Amino acid sequence: MTVAAGIGYSLIALGPSLSLFVSVISKKPFLILTVLSSMLLWLISLIVMSGLWRAFLPISSSAWWPYAILIITSVGFQEGLRVFFWRIYKKLEDILDAFADRVSKPRLFLTDKMQIALAGGLGHGVAHAVFFCLSLLTPAFGPATFYIEKCSKMPFFLVSALIALSFVTIHTFSMVIAFNGYAEGNKVDQIFVPVVHMVAGLMTLVNFAHGGCMIGIPLLYLMAMLTLMHCGKMVWRRLTENRGRQESSQ
Amino acid sequence: MAQNPRPRSSLLDSLGEEIVRIVTPVSICMFLVVILVSVLNSSSSSSGSVTSIATIAYSETDSDSSWDKFVGALLNSLAFVAVVTVVTFVLVLLFYLRCTKFLKLYMGFSAFIVLGFMGGEVSLFLIQDFSIPIDCIAFFLLLFNFAVVGVLAVFMSKMAIFVTQGYLVIIGMLVAYWFTMLPEWTTWVLLVAMALYDLAAVLLPVGPLRLLVELAISRDEDIPALVYEARPVTHHDSGNNGGNQRRVWRERSEPATTESENSVDRPATVPNSNSMPDSHPHSASVSDRETSLSAPLLERRASIESERRREDAALGDNLALEGMGLGSSGAIKLGLGDFIFYSVLVGRAAMYDFMTVYACYLAIMAGLGVTLMLLAFYQKALPALPVSVLLGVLFYILTRFVLEIFIVQLSSNLLMF
């Protein structure tokens, strides 16, 4: 429904990430590069998964279990890739610290590390929104709109934008939680992230049922808020610990 | 009550700044081309193909079989690469004979042609599509002024850097848009052919670009070409070593790359007949216009300033960071041909679907990053086209045939992860 609607749907899915980008990420060029590389990594993981599943697509049956297997394998692969991302990040951290010593600048602060994790998560989230939501949004810029049968109360574009928004939140902040969990060796955090991802992915299967999106979308937002709160608590705890440690060492 | 400590300057504040300064204009150019392609091509399907130097061997029609199209595209690209090679050698010869004035004049002239005529045609398409009310005289006046300021911006180095950068991006966008009007198979095979040519021309000892760069370094002069500079660099016409700017040429030989630019390389022997039969845009022969762009749009590989003393001291990773332009002294320059071919790739991807656009964009950025890292590592002239273009083509194919159906299946059922 016209350009305004198209832009509106894109902003629903990507608005918060855009404001995060402008306020936090765009100030530091290194974070922009981190966002681009994590988007690339996410895209590669998608391509690998779609390559593996190519032989079985399109799934013609309307049963839900082939999709369930699809989602489980994809989420599992992506979580494995997150560990890989963490290893690369560790190496990068060492390089950056050595570089900082050489040019006699301070080493990476805790806030810096968290910002890098945030940028990585944002890259994943934005890639998700772009590939799952924005790339299908092209018809929305035209004169009409589209409804699907299973979720007939709202235009398809709106539904997919809302789901994309919740996933963007989940991806962005679970990266912060995950990196922190790996850094501290905190098992709770390490398990939290894959579990939330898997649960959120499987929750979208609810959309298969007629009218299922009425339940599915609020539940997804519940997961997103859970992620947000957990991340907030963790960041607050670490920052106050850090500040306490700094004040006591002065 | 504890006060917030004043924000300490961290390492992350300026790291990677130079790379972002190159990534931004490349992204803007690609974005503009995608917008142009999707706005202008949605209204009119490609009714005719453009006759140009790139289609002399074969002009594609819809009814040919895939194999025919592929062979035809291959012939087209070979013809094109041959023309570009010949013209590059002519350029090397001219540079060797110190005809720098002529080259600079030619550069200004071709910038005028691109901005004036190609820019004019694109504006005409836009005016037609959106029914913008504007009269001939006002249009002519605006266009003429626009083109003249553009020529001054690329000709003289005293213009504000932002204006020069803006005009270079616009020139890149216009040429890339014209390239996307070539038939599909020809475009893709041409991109791959130019990437391979670039590889050969810069790395082989007899490659014309390598000769050109070595000549420029030995004389300590600038190659007269259209190059995007991320930050202002003053040019000296004298040959003496004027400060910082010259060191970049001494340190690492610029991998000057293709002159693909534009395909427009038409040897100077072709009379620059400015007869533009412009009644029907599609049948207009783009060749004359293209010719003008030959010399100027030399692609140069990103050159990164690295000071000699740092090169001695640093090792391994540290050098990589410094040389990549992540150090504070790095200033990156990128040739306009790079802009053009990246945008052509993304514009062509836009003609299929937006998903391919996003995938190709990420692939090109990755290629650019890899090229910069290789440059820092190997410390010698490297071509920038191959990695990005080959990655871009690979991702296009993968997205179109593998990823798209996966994503559409999932998201049309509202399943996401």
From TrEMBL, chain A:
The keyword Transmembrane helix applies. This is Gamma-secretase subunit APH1-like. Keywords: Membrane, Notch signaling pathway, Transmembrane, Transmembrane helix. Pfam families: Aph-1. One of its GO terms (cellular component) is membrane. Belongs to the APH-1 family. The keyword Iron does not apply. The chain crosses the membrane at residues 6-25, 30-52, 64-85, 116-137, 157-179, 191-209, 215-236. It is found in: Membrane. GO terms for biological process: Notch signaling pathway; protein processing. InterPro entries: Aph-1. Its main location: membrane. It is a multi-pass membrane protein.
From TrEMBL, chain B:
Pfam families: Presenilin. The chain crosses the membrane at residues 20-40, 73-96, 105-126, 132-155, 160-179, 185-206, 358-378, 384-408. It is a multi-pass membrane protein. Keywords: Endoplasmic reticulum, Golgi apparatus, Hydrolase, Membrane, Notch signaling pathway, Protease, Transmembrane, Transmembrane helix. It is found in: Endoplasmic reticulum membrane; Golgi apparatus membrane. Residues 234-297 are annotated as: Disordered. One of its GO terms (cellular component) is gamma-secretase complex. Residues 270-286 have a biased composition (Polar residues). GO terms for molecular function: aspartic endopeptidase activity, intramembrane cleaving. One of its GO terms (biological process) is Notch signaling pathway. Its main location: endoplasmic reticulum. InterPro entries: Peptidase_A22A, Preselin/SPP, Presenilin_C. Its EC number is 3.4.23.-. Probable subunit of the gamma-secretase complex, an endoprotease complex that catalyzes the intramembrane cleavage of integral membrane proteins such as Notch receptors. The PAL motif is required for normal active site conformation. Homodimer. Probable component of the gamma-secretase complex, a complex composed of a presenilin homodimer, nicastrin, APH1 and PEN2. Belongs to the peptidase A22A family. This is Presenilin. The gene is LOC116213776.
